[in-house]
Each structure stands twice: as C-alpha cells, then as structure tokens.
TrEMBL record:
It comes from Methylorubrum populi (strain ATCC BAA-705 / NCIMB 13946 / BJ001) (Methylobacterium populi). CDD domains: GATase1_1 (cd01741). It comes from the Bacteria. Residues 67-209 form the Glutamine amidotransferase domain. This is Glutamine amidotransferase class-I.
Length: 286
C-alpha cells in the first residue's frame, strides 16, 4: 500500500437494476458493485469507497459530495442494453456525462465501457458475431498501443472472464483502441471527452471464477439459444468445472480442460487493468 492508495476516495457506479442485483446476489452472493467494492478495498487498503446506483430513480451521492471530490469512478457491468431508450439507460448515460464533465478519471468493465462510449456521443449494438460467454479468448493489444499503461504486465495475447450480449462496434472521436480479439473488435479502449478520461475493457478483470460460473447459470437459456450448449445440462457441467477451478486454482487438469492459464486463475494477474488504472490515474486531492 502507498499513500496514494490509502488516502483515495473512490466511487463505484453500479448500473444494475434492483431486479438484476437481486438475481446476482441469489446466484453468487453479491451484486456487481459489491464485487468492485471488495476488490478496491484489497487493491487500495485504506481508501474510502462509496457506491451509487445511477440507473435507480433515487440515486444520489452522499450528502454534500460532488463527483469532482472523488479521485476515481468505477463503472460496473450491467444487463442494461444502451440502444434501448428507458429511464434506466438515460439516467446511467447522464451520470457518465457528468463524470466526464467533472474531470474525475474513470474505469469501467463490460457495460461500463459501453456506457462511456454512449456518453461520449456514440452508440453500441448487439454482438455482431456471437455471444462471448465465460471467457474472452486471445485478447490482443493493438500494435500502436501495446505500451499503454492500462495493459502493463499483460502478455501479447491473453484470456479474461467475459460474458456480454452487446458490444462497442467502433470508437468515438477522442478515443483510442487498445485491444481486441476475433469476436469483439473493441476489448479495451481509452476515451477522452469533455475534459474527462476513461479507461475501459469489455471483459471482467474484477470477476472471479465463481462469478463466471454464476453468470453462465443465469444466462443458460441464452447460451443454448446461441448454440453454445445443447441444453442446460451442458451449461451446468461446464459451470461445475469453472466452480471447481475457483476452489482449487492450482488444478492443472481443470485449467487444461478449460483452456485457461494464470492470466485468469491468478487473481493478481487477472486484476492488472484495475491495478494499472489506480497506479496511473488516481491522484488524491486532485
């Protein structure tokens, strides 16, 4: 721990709806925001961490606080489809526009990246190729941005937890593509807009293997519909292996069977992007 981490103020923006939060808690015991809070308290012991739920009608910062008083904002994943005009999507995008305007640096995963793109004036779409479920494979940094600090420590190609039905198809002006793979062209990006900066990934570095298994179970019907499984029994059999590797991350037989290496099974390596963001952009008392 260093003084930068210990004196930081972080805001976690959890854009899951109340129903989605309930389902996730029933599945893995915590909401997406609670997962982020747990990870941040381990990456930056002593940091003050607050949470807001911008999709909710009654969302509000703690009394007397403003976005500019935070050292960083973290946007979680969410089942929201941002091409659908709903009160929840409008509130979430408006929140991110306020984050950009505040100048507070932000990081986001999965839907967090999509929210930042829409807030910067662009759009997202359903996955053009197929559902990326369980793990994103062979994520490759772009040749021009291989040295970008967000991806420091990552190899030339790596896998990461991922499950998403929507994608960022292109980036708005002021954005930089950092990584992609065969299924999803934009796996990591930097977006600059209205005086603010956002670093984001389409995958889930914050997600442990137990949460991957839970996500597969929650979306079993979609996996069958997409042709990735013959039935729910197939999904459950795969999820059981992922769960087992979570319990015993040194099981080489399970890692081999699932095609995973330490970039996924070693939490320290899996959290590279979050740690890199905190180290590079978080400056207490900006």
């Amino acid at each position: 721990m260093n003084s930068t981490q210990s004196s930081s103020r972080f805001l976690v923006a959890e854009s899951e709806t109340p129903e989605a939060r309930k389902k996730r808690r029933e599945s893995v015991g915590r909401s997406s925001g609670e997962t982020y809070l747990d990870i941040l308290r381990r990456l930056a012991p002593g940091a003050t961490c607050d949470r807001i739920q911008p999709a909710d009608a009654d969302a509000a910062l703690p009394p007397g606080d403003s976005l500019a008083e935070y050292d960083a904002v973290f946007l979680t994943g969410s089942p929201l489809h941002l091409y659908e005009e709903t009160p929840e999507t409008r509130r979430t995008v408006a929140f991110m526009r306020s984050v950009f305007a505040s100048g507070t640096p932000a990081f986001g995963s999965c839907a967090g990246l999509q929210v930042a793109k829409v807030a910067a004036g662009d759009s997202v779409r359903p996955n053009a190729r197929r559902l990326e479920a369980g793990f994103a494979r062979r994520i490759t940094p772009t040749a021009d941005e291989r040295s970008h600090p967000l991806l420091a420590g990552r190899p030339a190609a790596f896998d990461a937890p991922a499950i998403h039905t929507d994608e960022v198809d292109a980036l708005p002006p002021g954005a930089t593509l950092l990584a992609g793979n065969r299924l999803t062209a934009v796996q990591a990006a930097e977006i600059r807009f209205d005086g603010g900066v956002f670093w984001g990934v389409q995958y889930h570095p914050e997600t442990g293997l137990d949460e991957v298994a839970g996500a597969l179970r929650r979306q079993a019907d979609s996996l069958v519909e997409a042709g990735l499984a013959r039935g729910e029994d197939d999904v459950e059999a795969y999820a059981l292996q992922v769960d087992a590797l979570h319990r015993e991350p040194n099981r080489r037989d399970l890692a081999w069977r699932l095609g995973l290496d330490e970039q996924v099974t070693d939490e320290r390596l899996r959290l590279a992007e979050m740690r890199n963001f905190i180290g590079a952009l978080v400056r207490p008392g900006r």
